Amino acid sequence: MDDSDDFEIVFGKNSNIVYEKPAADVIKQRRRSLENELFIDRLLKALGVQKAESYENLRLLHKQIINSSSPDHHKHSALYYLLKDVQKYSHQSPRDFANASYLPGKYRTFIDGIWYLDRLEFAKALDDLTEPALIPTFSEEILYTLCRHSLDATLPIAYYQTVSPAITSGKVLETYFLTLCHVSVTEAFYFSRTQGDLNHRVLFEKLLNFVHANSDGAIKATRGVELISLPLNEEEASWFTEFLEDGKGRNLPGANDTLIMRAIAIGRPESVSRDWRTGNSQKIDGVDWNTLRGGMRYS
To answer: Model confidence over 239-255: pLDDT tens digits?
Structure first.
């Protein structure tokens, strides 16, 4: 029998059970950290519960959840999340509640994942949110959150590669692509090819911009070698030249040098000026492009 509509059965007979002020303040701080929306906020909105400030009044929040028109397992999922938050005050554990309400395992796993996300424990969240049995839910928002707030850039990449969320938001696409650029120029390049004709060129040009504008010193040299060694098709090669020679990237630091090194990399030294053939190159952002050319011989 489902007794989840009875507050005291779910949370106990403590009529004054609330989020203590320190805990409530921490939740508000995390909400600000996550751009003013926690995943429990999203879940409650999906249930038709709009008043996030009511968290401090569990009785009211419980009533709003129970009175929503959502399926029982969605209501139980929200209550399971809240029990995880206040379990030290409640008479039953979240697990006991989940068992008593027959909450399916995949819903428990998803809630565990977003609970960790809201607590900024991203590695733990990923363990749950990449469970194969889960139906992708809030997947774009999860990917964006991992990109923006995880200090480990491999986490959003692991999430994307495991879950394969459909990215429909331009903001999410750009944020994930820049994360890929930081981790691997080559991976970012191949990803750009999967995003349709229009996005392909836009992302490819963002990659060119990233390597020149967001890299310095040895990192720029390493990324530069990766960039000029990419297996560009004819169309991409045209975009490469247009962007760095005549387009928005022509004034980027080292743009001309990249064009020259690309010419060397693809075996067209006739397009290289005499100064470059004799090795009279300059340093740009601390990068000696003769060193970069030498590095190509061993890459």
So the answer is: 999 999 999 999 999 89
